[in-house]
Amino acid sequence: MHRCALWSLPFLVLPLTSLADPLPSWNDSASKTAILDFVAAVTDPTSDSYVPEPDRIAVFDNDGTLWSEQPLYFQLAYALDMVRQKAEADPAILTSDALRAAAAGDIAALRETGREGMLEVVSLSHANITPEAFRASVHGWLTTTEHPTTGLTYAEMTYQPMVELLRYLRDEDFSTYIVSGGTLDFMRAIAEEAYGIPPAQVIGSIVNLSYSVEDGVPTLTKQPGLFFVDRTGDKPVGIMNHIGQRPIFAAGNSDADFEMVDWVTAGEGARFGMFIHHTDAERETAYDRGSPIGALDVVLDEAEGRGWVLVDMAKDWSRVWSATP
């Protein structure tokens, strides 16, 4: 009986990883092709676009880019819950319009108090606690509290296509970082579990900390106020202070990420800029221009001319949530 020499067929000697789709939740579209082509070019030593491993750095916004941000930023939803719980135990803490609005869950009234009102809410809900205790509180809240519209826990509302992208980049020897307006300890509570990103690779707004010795034990305690706000033009500042060099890949979802992506893609050599466009009203929420959260306006006008990829959530993703198919 003639035996077929299967080993002689070229496609069978390829490693299995080369046959697998690294982005299975992405539809075959121009966005997916652009990502794959870029990664192939910068990781091929024979390519003119080759980038050595230490310089393969990718930065990602979090809210609206790696997980949902509607109808509220998750950190704000947490802060409101904490203020409400504290107020139930001691109503006397509600000393301002902002805190009363937060305890009542009145977002419109809270917005009217402006940035100072928001800082009051963050200070009351985030201060006078050690970073370790705060992270434990946040992790417990994210993994047990249900989102008001999806029924999923907040921790389950990461975007599966973006989780795949993070994993794919790391498989190709990229270092992946979160760069968000949220505070460091809030994201560090879940980043490694949700995205495979360790705490040291999270860049965000920084809450004031104080050092003291309590009963002989050196202790750090979170204090009211913010030491650094990681938004808009401060994102490149945070990246340089934390990483010390310009990344080659940046992804965001709103005009608040414009400066980050603009700075990253302005560097020499191969560069990649990407924005998530929330077009899927059925599976998530459709929003862009004029949205009070995650507005995408300037980017829509500028992306094509700057060579940035606009990911159409409805068309480019076959799946949205990591927790559900």
UniProtKB/TrEMBL annotation:
Gene3D superfamilies: HAD superfamily/HAD-like
InterPro entries: HAD-like_sf, HAD_sf
Protein name stated in the entry: Nonspecific acid phosphatase
Alphabetized Pfam families for the sequence: HAD (PF12710)
Keywords: Signal
Leader sequence segment: 1-20
Superkingdom of the source species: Bacteria
